[in-house]
Specification:
The structure holds two protein chains of two kinds. Chain A is α+β, with helices and mostly antiparallel strands. In chain A, 27% of the residues lie in helices and 25% in strands. In chain A, strands 5, 6, 18, 19, 20 and 21 form a six-stranded antiparallel sheet that branches. Chain A has a four-stranded mixed sheet with strand order 1-4-22-7. In chain A, a hairpin with a 2-residue loop joins strand 19 and strand 20. Chain B has one domain. By secondary structure, chain B is α/β, with parallel strands linked by helices. Chain B is 26% helix and 13% strand. In chain B, helix 1 packs across helix 4. Chains A and B meet through helix 1, strand 2 and strand 9 of A and helix 1 of B.
Amino acid sequence: MRLIPIPKEEYEAYRLNLMFDCYKWDPQFLDHNTIAKYALAITEEEHARLKVLTEKLDEETRAAEVMLNGDRKLARPLALPKKLSKELQRMGNYDPEKHIRLMRYDFHPIGDGAWAVSEVNSDVPGGFAEASLMPEEAKGRLCGKHLRYINFGEIFIGAIADKVPEGGRIMLVHCTSYSDDRQVMQFLGDQLKEKGFQVIYGAADHVWFREHTAYSILDGNEGRLDAIIRFTPLEWLTEIRPKKWDGYFDTTTVSCNHPIAIYAQTKRFPLVWEELEKRGACLDTWRELLPDTLEVKDAKGKEGYIYKPACGRVGENISIKEACWEGEYEKIMRDVKRHPKKYLAQKRFYSTPLAGENGEQYHVCLGSYTVEGKHAGYYARISESQRIDSNSADIPVLIERSGGNDR
Amino acid sequence: MTDKEIYQIWAPYGKKWTDWVRPVPFVGIREHSGKYHFSNLTVPVPALEERETEGTAVIVDLPGVESVLEGIALARIGFRPVPVFNGTMEQPGARATVDNQAVGVGLVWGATLLSDMEIEEEAPPAFLMDCNRLNRFKMEDSLFDNSWDIYPQDIPSAEYLIKNGIDRIVIIANRLSKDLAKILYGFQKKGIRICITEGYEKPRIIKIRTPIKKD
């Protein structure tokens, strides 16, 4: 695995094309450029290994979901927010065959070809355009005969086309006030339109349900929906008034993701493994890759553990002290003390940084997608800090055939 | 001019402050703003005087196109206009809470003027935003809510501003918006003076009180 610099004379055009042709509408975050000046090249061997690990993790995760859904008492240690917990019983009619399952597993290199996994983005993984168009844009600038990539978008659209009737009406559910959400949905919407689907951009409260079927109530776009592709996190739905969102939990309209995703979305997911294993579940790959995870109280006095919020996203509020901004670490620790069930303790791992062209060191988070249980491409970010969060930069992932260094 | 060319005029690569120019209103700008016709776009007299530029960053928080025009006026007295409009387009056929398309007319029109101007390397920034962004009242559940907020990550940090010689922010607006108050409260704590003007009087210093945590 290595970083390949985007040629300096090409970077301006590269950045411009990413913004205008590749849906990268957030090129700057505070004082940080979010478009890396590198591409990430992984070897065919690394890719093969990651593909196997990702698919194994996915198989274990989906089996665990079904088990938890079959006996919801097992889910108690997850300490899901009450409003969500109450709705879990509606998922009794969940049939994986009817819906589209999309997940992204975050891998970190820890040296000697080994990997650690920090989490699965089980509910609403993003980065669609970065995993589909960005590698093509980079590849063209890297004399890349020896480089290839996996187009996530093609695979995802294919999975949608398998489950949604031709020309069907699909609502892309997202927070319509956020351009960062819209860029993800716009990429998908444009691709779906090309395939002949009718696309509606709407918010979670624009979907109402009748007899388990989803309907759009969006002004001028009313009517039955054939699919819901949701980018609004489940825990945000609970804030919606009037309460119509409970229909998401038992709808038979094709959903991606169905709320079944909540079981693995919470970072407290590992806290139910022991019970699941007693009932025959296999979580060996998870155990191999995820650092030891404990209840906050059980980590007291133990060295080398960090705290993560159960419902955390994009790496925020993780107590890696040297990566926190001024006062943030103390703030997190106060919150951990006050709400221990909203957090978990996890053994800290140290990622092995990659070298930039001037000796800088970058930590990598390599997100590996699955769609319907099959590996579906990569989305990566790099950061000079150990914590990969919103200050990180997006980087395209390319797969390099042996001998690539010799060009 | 293409969308990209219009963007490049507002955000010439490598120039100070231009990394913060949001591409959002520029993507498909001609398509989105093509239906609007403003017959009397004129650049106003700037709300600040030329001698007031030193150590000063400006936030223009006026309605859509007005904000762009003020930005051009400020460019004439030595500021670098930095559009940070971030509102999305509504689903076709749906009524929306905010008109995020009209601002495109100003940006296209302003690009022609801006391309003839020489803006100095060290020009201080004038961040342009639309005060209508916070219109999120929905008469009906079915409306498309494309209101938007300014968040701390949308503009440079206080530390960055200070490091680059900025010790005063002048807001040109009828009133201080709630989202801006949250950000600027933090800036004020770090020693940046916050001033406001409606454009008809000299900027006056304001003291922003602790923002209420929950909306």
